[in-house]
Amino acid sequence: MLQIGNIQLPDFPLLLAPMEDVSDPPFRVVCKRNGADLVFTEFISSEGLIRDAIRCRRKLDIYDEERPTGIQLFGGDEERLAMAAKIVDVTQPELLDINFGCPVKGIVAQGAGAGVLRDVDLMVRLTEACVKSTNLPVTVKTRLGWDDASKNIEEVAERLQDVGIKALTIHGRTRCQLYKGEADWSLIAKVKNNPRIHIPVFGNGDINSPQKALEYKNRYGVDGIMIGRAVIGYPWLFREIRHYLDTGELLPAPTVVERVDVCKQQLQKSLQWKGPVAGIYSMRGHYLRYLKGLPGIKEFRTALMTHTEPEAILAVLDDILVRYEGYVMERTPIEMVNYHENCPL
Ligand SMILES: Cc1cc2nc3c(=O)[nH]c(=O)nc-3n(C[C@H](O)[C@H](O)[C@H](O)COP(=O)(O)O)c2cc1C
To answer: What is the similarity comment for this entry (predicted)?
Structure first.
């Protein structure tokens, strides 16, 4: 077992990454059902939360079945972050995570996200303020450093542990790398192997297959891994990794029935959580990703993207089941999208 504060997790837990516009409660439920051990919300602005923006408040919703869940906050002002942490405390997630990794210009400019990697003293003060204002275990997610010349994660890890964080997740890139190049896990391993560090250290970046998960587990010795892009459209990766770690065997690719089932489950949760209009719209990006690889699936695209009634969409999904009955899906490599390709630095 692995412990974060009072939360018990299995050995080598698999974490769903916080992802804006992706890691909402319906998606988190789907990931949990398919093997995620700990899930995180999208990042939430501490300012927005304090001003009670409806969108931010809704991001605090948690389904019981997805727990344990970490709520992720960002903010560059100690008092405001601490105040937001108090609001989060009331909603009782299992833990509170601080985002010190977001590279997006607008966030960095507020002195939040990866911006604080240039000011470790501020990072420490922000973290300490959070730890003191909540009873929840506080964790941090960050990157290796600001740029190649200033990879300060080893110092950051020690100092954040000293002010009371209970776990650290490290994305193996710098802020200036955005998603360029390959994630470098060797520094993550150095943090993990530092005898001063006793909190769990989770590795993050580029995991997209059971084989890579096992290879990185063995090579870098981290306490668990966090997965982001690869599970968008492929939540089954969690169970595939767990099975491979346990048995050394690859599970067969999910069947058409399982894929359609995930579409239906997420649709049902989206309707429940977002209501009839937003629930339908927010699912539109998901269907074809879940059904990717089925020859001719694009024929169903228009129907899935235009129907506005749940019954009509469910009928299309049932048609897909009939059309592809008995079709055996092949396992194909999961492509990694570079989400920040056109982001200004
Ligand atoms: C669409 C998208 C949204 C993201 N939003 C957040 C976020 O809200 N908070 C955060 O800490 N990281 C966010 N990230 C970064 C991921 O959590 C993760 O660190 C990164 O994608 C690297 O992991 P991966 O290679 O497994 O995708 C986001 C990534 C993507 C692709």
So the answer is: Belongs to the dus family.
